[in-house]
Known about the structure:
- The protein is an alpha+beta fold.
- It is 29% helix and 27% strand.
- It is built from 13 helices and 23 strands.
- It has a 7-stranded mixed sheet with strand order 3-9-10-16-13-12-11, with helices on both faces. Strands 20-19-21-22-23 form a 5-stranded mixed sheet, sandwiched between helices. A 3-stranded antiparallel sheet has the order 5-4-6.
- Helix 2 (41-60) crosses helix 9.
- The chain is globular and about 75 Å long.
- Bound molecules: adenosine-5'-triphosphate.
- Adenosine-5'-triphosphate binds next to strand 10, strand 13, strand 16 and helix 9.
Amino acid sequence: MPEGKNKVDMEKIVSLCKRRGFIFPSSEIYGGLGSCWDYGPLGVELKRNVKEAWWRAVIQERDDMVGIDASIMMHPQTWVASGHVEGFSDPLVECKDCHLRWRATDLNGNSCPDCSGELTEPKQFNLMFKTFMGPVEDDASVVYLRPETAQGIFVNFDNVLATSRKKLPFGIAQMGKSFRNEITTGNFIFRTREFEQMEIEYFVKPGTDEKWFDYWVKERFDWYLKLGIKEENLHLRKHGNKELAHYAKGCYDIEYLFPMGWAELEGIANRGDFDLVQHAKYSGKTLSYFDDETGEHYTPYVIEPSAGVDRSMLAFLVDAYDEELAEGETRVVLHLHPKLAPIKVVILPLSRNVKLVPLAREVYTELRRHFMTQYDDAQSIGRRYRRQDEIGTPFCVTIDFQSLEDKQVTIRERDSMAQIRLPINEMVKTLQAKLSGEPFDAQPLWATRTPDALGQ
Ligand code: ATP
């Protein structure tokens, strides 16, 4: 594995996220709550776009996949069958001096990283959050907040099979919140106690599982590349035999070069028939597949690509972040893929001059029917460009005095800062094409704009 860390500083990402309304510390006015974060107006859009891109790739554009949305609280037996009650734990050690607690597997030596104090022997700590259902708080009313979305898929295997009439191979996808009482959190939204997952269970005929495992590893790796992650910042790490769960036939992690080093973005595992067999055993229900071509009944094997929404967001933000020298000053820019950018287009009237307002508002009304659009008339054009660069807006549409005469606007592209001028009635079509990846062929501005139009 290549050594190193991403050259982008995590502090800069955290600060940009706070300053521009992507991510805030949770309940900040009360001093925050450890490792809980709130997504602000831009963060929520970025997050929706990440999830939308995933849903589109794994469901909308395929005919072998369907989605579900299972409840967060499930029958407690689910977690007995899945092995979480027994084994979903981390080794916890505590410093005898300062009483800080650590995950033993995160430590290099055997003293406290904070004060060098002596540590206790590791004890297993279950990571599931427990609560009680109903008014009585006793053992019979214990329920768990799901620590992964996957089990909601397995327990619905038969329901989906019966209603969707899918044949093997087929998959079920789900995204939603998961909760883990992690011992050590940190690195911003990388490891938190409440997070979102995007998980697939892809059911296949036993014997074809290796082929489908390789297929999904490549498919998922390519998804990040298609959304703009730089290839040099992404790699695959194969789990060694010791690291593999006893039932798993193979596992790869897709790792990203985060500011703190290489770390898991998504895991893809060949889980054999473990989960369906376990749920069949504990529920007493048959969870198998009838193959009408061979006349056999068997339990499918499953390939599980399991990704984190928040971790992907962090990777997309880090990968997109850049500081460039432009026109003699440093501009901070997020080169986010247009599909992920929270705001696609901003309308910038050259000034607040009342003559410009009606046309600018008209263009704004038209564009927001098609794209997430903002209207910004505060401060100089240069400052407004920089603001949009910093939040990753791919296109700025400027309305100037000449626009009133010729019904044309100027579109500026974020990455190249190149500009084109075009008729208002071609704007939506052009932006649609450019947002879908059509190259931005800029014409020299001086050919189309007069000094008058520039307000000079
Ligand atoms: P790690 O080793 O980093 O704790 P894991 O191997 O336990 O992760 P999985 O159980 O495979 O993670 O979960 C699948 C995905 O869910 C991870 O690749 C990650 O993107 C996301 N994820 C898991 N735990 C967390 C967490 N505490 N905070 C944010 N995302 C998480």
